[in-house]
Structures are given as structure tokens and as C-alpha cells.
Specification:
By secondary structure, the chain is an alpha+beta fold. It contains ten helices and 20 strands. The termini are far apart.
């Protein structure tokens, strides 16, 4: 267990009037306990009671992870494949007295499977959403987390520098995505953060396009959105390139998005809100006459997950705090012609923000020469 994080969670549980929180395999369980496991047909639930030691329901074959996390044997309710998990759930429900609990759960992660098992053995259990409690802890990054993010960004940027000379007119989006994946791993990435978005020409007008067999052509805009995991943390960067010379309007929207990106970063500081950052970036694009072509939020939080809080979006009035890390990624998308997105990863400091990404933001020509 990470004692410092666990103590903060205990404070939040008490402040929310909960009897405890239940975590399932994923980022929150790993963040608190260091237990890394994947979601499968074998249920695992970590309980953090308000006033007692953590407890866990876990398969016997993974029980050593719970012991390594410091959970006492008497609080490990393990089960094997022969006997099944019913006895472990029944024992945990009785010993923890779950029937009398108001339990905070990860509503976005806990499956119907785990929820039904809890209610079967604790029919009077009351569950409430606990994402706000968990994300409040994770949204302010510790120095070790910032270092990991910086490493992931450095690997991603090095991989892009290695890729650019390999991009040629006639290469397909799929081929470029495959080369980029190769470079990300060669530069030291643990795994790719997501399948790279590589979209050119008309396809680049779709923010979440999937790479196709379409070959690069002279005059295309080429959008590449990529990232990699290092030390368990991801990078998430987007740059837009010109395949040879592009027409005047495409150059104009590029410069507009570049300015919007800069204004979004200027607005990011302690006390400002995600709404403020979104409005600052969006105003540039709206003033240029392309407001209807900016079709997504300005950014999202970045941490153990590629998408987490805080979000840079209209309606988010939570003040930013030093240690928040998120993307700033305005875009303009012209259907049938092309799109532009410029995405940076930024850290809120005590007096503003610092861009963790350093890859150039000028329009770079690729595929020629």
C-alpha cells in the first residue's frame, strides 16, 4: 500500500460520510495499493473501510499480490477455481458487515458482475458513486508521476523525430502508423498508449480517424496523434504536418489552431477553470470564423489513464491546482478537405503552466525531398 495515498483516501472517505470504498482492477486500485491485475471472469474487489485495515476478495493465484501490498492474511478473502468465489464473498460480507455500509464504488469501472455479487451477499448494501473522491486524489500529480510523464513525452518526441524522414508520398496511413509504433518501442516505450491516429487529406477532418490504406498525396494535411507508456504513465501528443505545399486556407487554419493552442496555455494557471482554458482557445477559432468546425473539448486530464480529470471543457468550473496535468488540443476540421489539431501536455505550476511537450509547433513539411 502507498501509505501516503491511503491516508488521503481515508480522509476523503470520512469527509464524504462513507463506510468505505470498493476498488476493482484498474488505475485506482493500482494507485492506492500497487496491485496490478486485469479484469477477467475472476472477480477481485479491494475494500478500503473508513476505520479499519484494507481487505480484498481475490483469487488464490493472485493472493501474493495482496500480501505484497501489506494486506494482513486475515483480511484476504481468497478463493480457488475449484471452490469458486461464492464463499469468499459470503465471508467478506459477513466479516466487514457490508449489509450496513454505504459503499463508494467506481461506477465507470465496476461491472454489473461485481455489483450483483455484492448485492447477493449484502442485500441491504447502499452504493454511491465515488469517482469524485478518487479523481480528487489522482488529479494532483506527485513528483514521481510528473517524472514518468516527462519520460513518456521524451520517448514519444524522439520517436516522431525518427519517423519524419521515413514519411514519403505514396505511403499509406496504415504504413505510417506501423512505422511509428516501431519507433515508439525502439525509443524505449513500454507499450503504445493507444493505436496511433494517422489521417491525411479528407480523412484528417475526422478527429478520431482510424488509419486506412489511403496513400499520402501532395497537398494533404497529415494529422498524427500518438503516445507511449513509460513507467506506467502515458504521453498523448498531436501534431499536424503538410505533405508538400498545401493551399492557403489550410495554412490559415493551421496558424489559427496554433494561436488557439498558445492562448489555451496562457489561460492555464492556478485558480482558473477548465472552462476558462476551453473558452480562451475556442475564442481564437470562433473569431477566425471556424467555431462550428471545432467539434470537441479543448483538453483532458492525463495520468495513469490517457483520459481522466480535469477536463478543459465548457461547464467545468473546478479551479485548477498546481500539479494538474492535462492536454490542450484545439482543432479545426473541414469536412472533405482536411483538419488540424495541435496537442500539448501541460503541467499547472504555482504561477502558470509549463508545457511538458517541446516538439515544434510550426508547420513542418514531410514526404518530399
Amino acid at each position: 500500500m502507498n501509505d501516503q495515498r491511503l491516508d488521503k483516501l481515508y480522509t476523503q472517505i470520512a469527509a464524504q460520510g462513507l463506510d468505505g470504498i470498493a476498488l476493482v482492477p484498474g488505475p485506482n486500485m493500482f494507485y492506492i495499493s500497487g496491485i496490478s491485475s486485469h479484469v477477467s471472469e475472476r472477480p477481485i474487489i479491494l475494500f478500503i473501510p473508513a476505520a479499519a485495515e484494507p481487505a480484498i476478495i481475490i483469487p488464490t493465484l493472485e493472493a501474493m499480490k495482496a500480501r505484497a501490498a501489506g494486506i494482513p492474511d486475515k483480511r484476504i478473502f481468497d478463493w480457488n477455481d475449484q471452490e469458486g468465489y461464492s464463499g469468499a464473498f459470503q465471508q467478506a460480507a459477513a466479516e466487514l458487515q457490508l449489509n450496513s455500509w454505504t459503499l463508494g464504488v467506481e461506477a465507470l469501472c465496476m461491472r454489473v458482475f461485481e455489483n450483483e455479487l455484492l448485492r447477493k451477499y449484502a442485500p441491504k448494501l447502499n452504493t454511491v458513486h465515488a469517482e469524485n473522491v478518487l479523481y480528487a486524489l489522482r488529479s494532483v500529480k506527485e513528483s514521481v508521476e510528473i517524472t514518468a510523464l516527462e519520460k513518456a513525452i521524451a520517448v514519444a518526441e524522439s520517436a516522431m523525430n525518427a519517423l519524419l524522414p521515413r514519411i514519403k508520398i505514396g505511403a499509406s496511413e496504415k504504413q505510417i502508423a506501423a512505422m511509428l509504433t516501431q519507433e515508439l518501442l525502439a525509443e524505449g516505450g513500454e507499450s503504445i498508449a493507444f493505436g496511433p491516429i494517422v489521417s491525411a487529406g479528407p480523412n484528417s477532418a475526422s478527429p478520431h480517424a482510424t488509419p486506412t490504406d489511403r496513400p499520402l498525396q501532395e497537398g494533404d494535411l497529415l494529422v498524427i496523434d500518438w503516445g507511449v507508456y513509460v513507467d506506467g504513465y502515458p504521453s498523448d501528443i498531436t501534431r499536424t504536418f503538410a505533405v508538400g505545399e498545401v493551399d492557403g486556407e489550410l495554412t490559415h487554419i493551421y496558424e489559427t489552431v496554433k494561436q488557439a493552442n498558445a492562448q489555451g496555455k496562457m489561460a492555464a494557471k492556478p485558480g482558473a477553470t477548465g472552462q476558462d482554458v476551453d473558452r480562451a482557445a475556442r475564442k481564437v477559432i470562433e473569431d477566425a470564423g471556424y467555431g462550428e468546425q471545432f467539434i470537441h473539448r479543448t483538453g483532458h486530464g492525463l495520468g495513469l489513464e490517457g483520459h481522466e480529470v480535469p477536463n478543459m471543457v465548457e461547464g467545468n468550473e473546478e479551479p485548477l491546482l498546481p500539479g494538474n496535468v492535462f492536454t490542450i488540443e484545439p482543432g479545426i476540421y473541414l469536412p472533405g478537405r482536411g483538419g488540424v489539431r495541435i496537442e500539448d501536455n501541460v503541467l499547472v505550476t504555482t504561477d502558470g503552466c509549463r508545457s511538458l511537450t517541446t516538439f515544434p509547433r510550426d508547420l513542418i513539411l514531410v514526404g518530399v525531398g
